[in-house]
Amino acid sequence: SSINYEVGTRLTYKRLAHFEGTAYLIDFDNQVVSSNGALSNGGIAELINGGATRHYGFEGGASFGLGEALKLRPTAIDLGLRYTFARATFDGGPWSGNWLPYAPATLLVGTVDVDHPSGLGGQVAWTYVGDQFSDPQNTLAEDTTGRTGKLPAYQVVDVALRYRMKSAGLTFKLAVKDAENETFIMARRPEGIRVGGFRQVLVGVRWDWDAGPKE
To answer: What is the C-alpha R_g of the chain?
Structure first.
């Protein structure tokens, strides 16, 4: 159970700019968290009652219509930025003041979107995830199993292209995940280090079929 407090605002100026922000505070009485041998269970990962926790932070976002500002209509070029600061800690008990597992303080996402009337479009997205802990004890050093230890910050660049044929209702998509092919540690449990990243290339086709009005 928890009590949540939020306050936020939004501001839009024509089609050029949009801003929004939210500050929040969440008090949990008994949040379920991941444990990594914290209860002398031989290092086996499990879900436990972590007791009282407190989360507070800020989420904000902004977008800017660069194409609109440069009068490139009908081509749309939009810049976007989203930022999250979150402090999530135990509030009492043996881990009081420690960070919750897998709760990075910083998340930052920047995007560039392009859309042309011909149907051609694309996006470049950059994501940054701050460092985080893997256990309630906030262990810094990595052990021999890889199940404990701090997870370093990482960043990922994704690229996507699309082309839509309006007459046929077809949309062709090409996406490259982790375009820089940067690997990183995304988790340490339950069986040790789990590596994320690796470049992936995805191809897709979508068909939107409109049967027209029914009699």
So the answer is: 22
